[in-house]
Design brief:
This protein is of the alpha/beta class. The protein has 2 domains: 7-96 and 186-215, D-Maltodextrin-Binding Protein, domain 2 (3-Layer(aba) Sandwich), CATH 3.40.190.10; 98-184, Periplasmic binding protein-like II (D-Maltodextrin-Binding Protein, domain 2), CATH 3.40.190.10. 34% of the residues lie in helices and 28% in strands. It has helices at 15-26, 61-66, 77-83, 109-113, 125-135, 151-155, 169-173, 193-198, 200-217, and strands at 7-12, 43-46, 51-56, 72-76, 88-92, 98-104, 119-122, 141-144, 160-165, 177-185, 187-191. It has a 6-stranded mixed β-sheet. The protein has a 5-stranded mixed β-sheet with strand order 8-7-9-6-10. The chain is elongated. The structure holds 1-O-pyrophosphono-5-O-phosphono-alpha-D-ribofuranose. 1-O-pyrophosphono-5-O-phosphono-alpha-D-ribofuranose is lined by residues 123, 147-150, 163-170. This is ATP phosphoribosyltransferase. Pathway: Amino-acid biosynthesis; L-histidine biosynthesis; L-histidine from 5-phospho-alpha-D-ribose 1-diphosphate: step 1/9.
Length: 218
Amino acid sequence: MEENRYLTFALGKGRLAKKTLELFEQIGITCEEMKDKDTRKLIFVNEDLKLKFFLAKGPDVPTYVEYGAADIGIVGKDTILEEGRNIYEVLDLGFGKCKMCICGPESARELLKHHEQIRVATKYPHIAKDYFYNKKHQTVEIIKLNGSIELAPIVGLSEVICDIVETGTTLKENGLTVLEEVCPLSARVVVNQVSMKMEHERINKLIRDLKTVIEKEE
Ligand code: PRP
């Protein structure tokens, strides 16, 4: 193993990154540079620990990890499922908990039950396709959207949506409800397959340390 090799982390931008850095602090991994909210820097270094961190759009994190541009990624399970990259998922961090659900107005429940050919709007076409085609054996039309998915059934674009539900507030405020649950979600640690072999000591130590903190918090 090279003495001076940096381990590189790709963090999904936003809430997840903030939580991740808080967790890393608890195991002695800090990155002061990253705390400056006004910085336009894209990559941050901890010279002492030989670590690098960068922030990326969530769906790009598995891509950086698969190609080895990052050794380790922190990303939501939803993104891992949707992107389908060749990476190892090694740890559930236990935060960012939410659920992937099929939602819509109460009136759409019957359509789902009777396997009607319906339209499903979603930011997650692969997850939706897998759920309806492989698990439910139901033919549906999937419509890809990029955000504010709850709008779709309200304005008549689709009968239901396949989307993330956290508190349920967005659904409630828009007269929608959870009709079926697809799977639970949370933040996960993913690792490049080659890095896992080449850097197994450092990576396994990191996983062990993170596990200890998570178990204490449970
Ligand atoms: C997510 C998700 C729901 C909402 C669920 O959207 O797509 O719209 O959060 O949260 P709740 O159950 O606590 O109301 P996000 O805020 O990520 O924005 P988006 O509409 O751009 O997907």
